[in-house]
Design goal:
Blueprint lengths: L12 E7 L5 H9 L7 E5 L26 E5 L8 H4 L5 H20 L3 E8 L2 H13 L9 H8 L1 H14 L7 E5 L3 H22 L11
Parallel strand pairs: 1-3, 1-4, 2-3, 4-5
């Protein structure tokens, strides 16, 4: 029998979204996946690990959502929580989060070596624009649920988070899974750049694996 995946189906695609609170991750994800076939695309959201998840290595809980060949997964937050919120809030020891940079890079390299195309987005937002969006959410009865006391607490630690973000981008940017920085001040700009970046990464990944890129549909 055949060894490995059916060559007629495309490589797994994993899109990771990280960014400041209110930077538009949800809106960008919605625009990215809405036109796609939901049988082949999964969106997964990650918050704090559960009691049971904390009994395992921090990467353990992410394995079940990773896409197989012919599939795509979009992650709203990810394993980078280890070197962001867990680092800043003290949920991980210094030894743990310092060790995590190399663990994450090796994890991503392992997935890429097996054929996965990985796109990682950092949605960047200025402090002033974040404050404007927080206040708009506060006043909109349909969006107040999005704003929590934790969001305000995180905002108060922006300097610490900024240092963590810079370390993360510097130490986990690698050829198999480079970071794509999204200028998220303008939501429409950010959404277009996200979609264009994903399309470009898939086409480049297919070309690198000698998989023919199908022609665009006729208008």
């Amino acid at each position: 029998g055949q060894i490995g995946p059916d060559p007629r189906i495309g490589p797994p695609v994993c899109v990771v979204f990280e960014g400041w609170d209110a930077s538009g991750k949800g809106g960008a994800i919605k625009r990215l996946v809405t036109p796609l076939d939901p049988r082949h695309v999964r969106v997964a959201q990650f918050g704090a690990p559960s009691y049971d998840e904390k009994r395992h290595h921090f990467l353990w809980r992410f394995w079940p959502v990773l896409p197989g060949w012919g599939g795509m997964a979009v992650l709203d937050r990810s394993w980078y929580g280890r070197v962001l919120v867990e680092r800043v809030e003290g949920f991980a020891t210094e030894e743990q989060w310092r060790r995590a940079y190399a663990e994450i890079v090796e994890f991503e390299q392992t997935l890429a070596a097996e054929g996965m195309i990985m796109i990682k987005f950092w949605m960047h937002l200025s402090s002033a624009e974040q404050l404007r969006r927080f206040k708009a959410r506060e006043q909109d009865p349909l969006k107040t649920w999005k704003l929590t006391a934790e969001d305000w607490r995180n905002r108060g630690k922006r300097r610490l988070y900024k240092a963590a973000v810079e370390d993360m981008l510097d130490r986990t940017d690698h050829k198999a899974a480079p970071w794509v920085l999204i200028e998220a001040e303008d939501k429409r700009w950010a959404r277009v750049k996200v979609v264009e970046s994903v399309v470009a990464a898939i086409e480049a990944g297919m070309a690198a694996r000698n998989i023919p890129i199908p022609p665009p549909p006729l208008p």
